[in-house]
Structures
1.
Amino acid sequence: MIVEFTDSGPGVRDPQRVFDPFYTTKPVGKGTGLGLSICYGIVIEHGGAIRVRNSAEPGRGAIFTVALPLQPVPESHMELPAWPAGTPPAGRILLVDDEEAVLELEQEILRGRCRSVRAVRSGREAQQVLDREPVDLVITDLKMPGDITGRELYNWICRRHPELSARVIFTMSDARATEVGPLLEQSGCEFVQKPFEVERFLGVVRRVLNHAEAVLLKGPSRH
């Protein structure tokens, strides 16, 4: 199956690089260059291919072509990680990411599996939500543009809502960056590498929520 998308913009400046992580022609603070990289990873994961070319006709912009294989429905399929049997949907989750495509993907994955899912595009918006609404889990991008990064949001949560400090999941495109290791070791938080597999994402969410619930049921230790 082949699907093509066209626009009427100025075209793509460098078609060979648009799917590279962090490549962007937007001004600083206006984008991270991860949107098309994530799309590329999703298409490749499904056995397809995605390409872009500029139209030969003036004013027709760029043309994106997505090719996906058609496959018969298998007799059995791999199910996504399931929540514990007999329990209600998971808790209230707050998603924080400056990339709209990432938020839409995460919301789609969690839809129907959680009591509620809120999505915001900045650390400042996340703080406002956390100060006025109950939240059970925060999933935040680590490197967001603006005055509040994922790390700074986590530090704020530790000060303002310490009960949530163990219920933060970081998403990131480069888990090997030098500053990531010390943060994860210090915080004890889980992380998900972008672009991520759905099973991995759901597994981490379930593990963090289950651990938090077990701690609450156990209560404070007595000596």
2.
Amino acid sequence: MLPQTASPPKLDGWALILGASSGFGAATAAALAGAGCDIVGVHLDRRTTLHRVDEVTQGIRSLGREAWMYNTNAADEAKRDRVLDDLALRWKSVDGPTSFRVVMHSLAFGSLLPFLGPNDDTRTSLRQLEMTSLVMAHSLVSWTQALVDRKMLRSGARVFAMTSTGAWSVWKGYGAVSAAKAALEAHVRQLAVELAPSGITVNALCAGVTDTPALQKIPEHETMKAIALRKNPHGRLTQPNDVADAILTLAQPQSHWINGNVIHVDGGESIVG
């Protein structure tokens, strides 16, 4: 007798995706919508990349779910508050929910210059260091604080943040982002402990090398891809859907005891020398 095929995981409620227009955020938004979640997406796109947002939005709505998208700087506290104010009014107008089931932090924007260079234009400045950490690390704390203050995180919620092996290893031009990722992992641990009494978990996901728009901006990314292909026991790069599937699994109620971790989603890439 053949084994029965497991039913796809199901979820209810709303998910907030910070960085929803491409890469891990877009894939996760689609996966959560397919499982039953309505989506609030925050992204920062110019006219040349807005078509990606339209594709993500249409994909979510084709699954019968809501897709409310906000094109704004997620690292700006005033703009964050405007998003949450508007969201609260929209929820109230439809007599809807008041809290999120899933939150994903997948913001990728920062300096990719080396620390040392012959002049200011060829090296990372202090301002760029601060900006990179604000966007890719500290904004996780800022959004979590605002959601808790507004009672927009329900008991049993799952918070996820995207880190990388660059948090502890050195890649060309990745110094500012590496520092931000290390800070992000520290924030995840602290938030995990402080939110545990509320039944909310916080974990970081460390994806393998993935061919996303963010990766393509890193110097010598083609070399990174080649090394990852050599190392990965599955013989392929990690894909955004691999991360989305992991989040879909970890968002289930049965994952409530997984908290404060850095979870590798890379098919075994990181354990191969």
3.
Amino acid sequence: MKIKLKRCLLRISGEDAKNFLQGQFTNDITKIKPNEIQVNAYCQHQGKIMSLLWVFMKHNSFFISFPEDLKELVLSKLRMFKLMSQVEIEDLSKMVHQYGLIKEDNLDSYKINDTLSLLTSSELITDSHDISQWELACIKECLPEIYLSISEKHIPQALNLDINQFGVSFTKGCYPGQEVVARMHYLGKPKRRLFRFQTKFKVSIGDSLNTNDSKSMKSSGQVIRVVNEGHVFHFLGVFEINNINDGIYLNNDENKSVKLVHE
């Protein structure tokens, strides 16, 4: 099953490309495997995620895939840090189509996990399926995403990127926000984690998640990824660990309850 994705695609090449990217992203790009996606966070100086990135290699170049509404933000940051490095940054978004694959083997695709993979093609595939099927599959796999409306809101631990070092390496060198992310890992415990929910009420990215037992001055959590399937909204949300089993509702409306999915 192939689903056309609305994502930006950058190619990073040049003799300094590896060292340049290693100093920008949270994961260890020297460990990228052939035909596999490595998930990375691109953080600002306070450790908040500007964008989640899918990084892969092809023909000795690095490719970076992320939601298209973050293109200007990501490009501006990469260009700002490039300085005098021997690095070329190319935007291939209009030349290369990106397709999400669900439980489909393809020799030319890049594996995200055992269920999901990414296929890039210079040709448009006309039998693409609806994007909602991809979103539902990603939510079931608890694969987070960051869009412009929720950029710079959450640290990597809140999106579970530190678990098994899925999207964060704690043995690589420095990157923007590294001190904050490392301090949380070695000296503290995250107060919020990523969970899967569902509800019969309409949900949008950026909506707040609340509970009466929270001591936070802000909302207890936030919706970061959502899809509607029939009369049910499935979504991923960042939420306070200590209150995850309490009554949770949307946007300070106690009549709009949400259910934690334990699968």
